[in-house]
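Give me the fold.
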Amino acid sequence: MIRIKYILTIVFTISICFEANAQFAERIASGRPGNANGAFSVGKGVYQVQFGQNFISTNNDLSDSYKGNFPSNRTFSGPDVMFRIGLKETVELRLGGVYSISEEVKFDQGGQNQSFSGFSNLLLGIRSTLFMQKGILPATAIQFTTDFGGGDDYDKKLPDAAFRVNFSNRIGEKLNLNWNFISRWIPDNADIAGFYIFSFSYPLTNDLSMTAEAFGNIDETTKLNTGVGFSYILGSNLQFDLYGSYGRNEIEKGNVEREIINFNAGVSYRIVNRKEKD
């Protein structure tokens, strides 16, 4: 816990030292749909909530030696929520959670099936925009998030921590690229995992946009991880979205090949309480 406090202090201090000249977005900019995060904060005086309902199906192709000892199938259904609070024009506080309505884990060849429910993740984080885009140099933000786990079925001895660098490039007048690199520390497993995400978004109309992305785990043999989503903005402060992704990766070489199918739908809403400068 002490280390986490130190890291949060460092991120906030960096945000003061690097004061990007951010510009308030006249329309809502949500972190949905998809896995990628942008490089911008919501802005001072903005309170934003992002809510989604998820369905995830995981199927593992197992070698004979892993059957019965490693899950063959996992299904998850439940909502997630993220609250974003603008502390400064370039800094936001992030509070979130994931609730499992139903999680079923199945084993082959006599393995003991398992069922879980309840809060699976409680999240606390901070994001700071450091630089705006200049030419081909991307807008840049750093983000730190702590996952404290959840209820009895999802209890953690020690919280996980993730450090994320978010880049954003506007390409031409409409195309936008968000690309992220994430390092996650998992103390309970004495493990460090690395992830990458590349996401393109393009407006089909003034209100409807399409997102397409590729992502993966640096430590796994990635065969295919891709997702497609659509978002629709109603007015200035309300957004609806749909998203689906498919992934296939080798996580235990020669023993486990994992297929993941994910569908979710969500809504984002913001309250703007700003005093604009004259």
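The two ends are 43 Å apart (CA to CA).
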